[in-house]
Specification:
The chain has about 220 residues and is of the alpha+beta class. It has eight helices and five strands; from the N terminus they run H-E-E-H-E-H-H-H-H-H-E-E-H. It folds into two domains: about 30 residues; about 160 residues, Glutaredoxin.
Length: about 220
């Protein structure tokens, strides 16, 4: 009579199979986690002068709303501020307009891998949060001290020193940590900014190259 076949279970192979399954599950979870982290919005600054919905730093309560989207390394933005900045800020101070400033970043590729545009915009949000009364002074100083394109831009220490200069020394830690760099990227993408300066009046995006600046002149007198 033939002996019954003996059943042998290869527990080593079973263990390997289970281990592989566990590793794949863990890797899958890690991929999902990293994807969620990559797509999660950056931390938003909190301040009485920051619009929670649009991310704008806002001044004045006038009926006409003027939105400016600026990159602190953009020479054209600097020229725009030289021409219109004082008028816009004064009109907002008089409550003739509501001025919504949007610090964004499209010129990081022109700062030799230092991400200056993003860092400067993030620093301005730090000042808006920590010392809102100093925001416009900091904003204006960043354009006054604007670094050249294709340079490394200003360091975080220099940005903090400028904040200190305008009475916003409390923003130094936020600037050093790059707290709002992701938020700047989110805002740049959300508003679909292709070039700077970008200007809107009551939600209408102007074409400054096609003579729409006249609409801005009409409001500012």
């Amino acid at each position: 009579m033939a002996a019954a076949a003996k059943s042998n279970t290869n527990w080593f192979a079973v263990g390997i199979s289970i281990a592989v399954v566990v590793v794949l599950v863990v890797l899958g979870g890690l991929v999902v986690f990293l994807n969620n982290q990559a797509s999660a919005p950056g931390a938003a600054p909190q301040s009485a002068i920051i619009n929670d919905e649009t991310g704008a730093v806002s001044f004045g309560t006038g009926a006409d709303e003027i939105d400016t989207f600026v990159d602190f390394m953009c020479p054209a933005c600097n020229a725009f501020e030289q021409q219109y900045g004082e008028k816009l800020q004064q009109a907002a101070a008089n409550n003739d307009i509501t001025l919504n400033v949007h610090p964004i970043s499209i010129l990081d590729h022109l700062s030799r891998n230092t991400e200056y545009s993003t860092r400067a915009a993030a620093a301005s949000y730090c000042v808006a949060e920590k010392a809102s009364e100093s925001y416009l002074d900091f904003f204006n100083l960043l354009f006054e001290k604007q670094p050249a394109e294709n340079s490394t831009g200003l360091t975080d220490d220099e940005l903090s020193a400028f904040a200190e200069q305008v009475g916003a020394g409390a923003a130094a830690g936020c600037i050093a940590d790059g707290t709002y760099m992701d938020f700047v990227g989110d805002q740049t993408n959300a508003h679909e900014i292709q070039g700077t300066p970008t200007v809107e009046i009551n939600g209408e995006r102007l074409d400054l190259q096609a003579g729409d600046a006249a609409k801005l002149d009409a409001i500012l007198g």
